[in-house]
Design brief:
0% strand; mainly alpha; single chain; 169 residues
């Protein structure tokens, strides 16, 4: 029974990244309007780079613990990890950044919710695998949300257009 739970945790922590990427690729290749793709891809790139650079800066300035949870407990890690203290979680950052891209750019609520749920499962899996603390994964998601600020102008332009059209009719 222990072996099955370890496998499930490993799939959650590492394996679910693959369907997240595949669903996002589908959403961002086939759900965007042809005339809006270039702008969307530029925003996605800038949001991702902003989040990544902020994460590296935060990780350099602040590390809540010098060791990861599995090291502190003297056990083996339950998932893959980079040899660093772990704040913020790269897996949580990456999957959350993808979730924000799908949510803001594809306008597909169903796909965004699916990717969002998978992102939460990855984050929980990283904690259960003892490669991150809850603070590490929350930090990754928050940093991805800061990077997602690149999408806010697009949302506000859409809201303004809808308001103007309602007011003029």
């Amino acid at each position: 029974m222990l072996m099955a739970s370890e496998t499930i945790i490993k799939i959650m922590a590492d394996g679910l990244v693959i369907p997240i990427v595949l669903i996002a690729a589908y959403a961002l290749l086939f759900k965007l309007k042809d005339n809006k793709r270039y702008e969307a891809y530029c925003r996605i790139l800038m949001a991702g780079l902003t989040a990544y650079l902020l994460a590296k800066l935060l990780g350099t300035l602040y590390q809540p613990a010098g060791e990861r949870p599995f090291e502190l407990l003297g056990t083996e890690p339950g998932a893959s990890y980079l040899n660093n203290p772990g704040f913020p979680s790269d897996h949580a950052l990456f999957t959350a950044a993808i979730t924000f891209a799908v949510w803001f750019e594809s306008r597909s609520r169903k796909l965004a919710i699916t990717v969002g749920v998978l992102t939460i499962l990855v984050s929980v899996g990283r904690v259960l695998a003892l490669v991150h603390t809850p603070l590490d994964v929350i930090g990754g998601i928050v940093v991805a949300a800061v990077g997602a600020a690149w999408y806010l102008n697009v949302r506000m332009v859409g809201v303004k257009k809808r308001l103007i059209s309602k007011l003029s009719s």
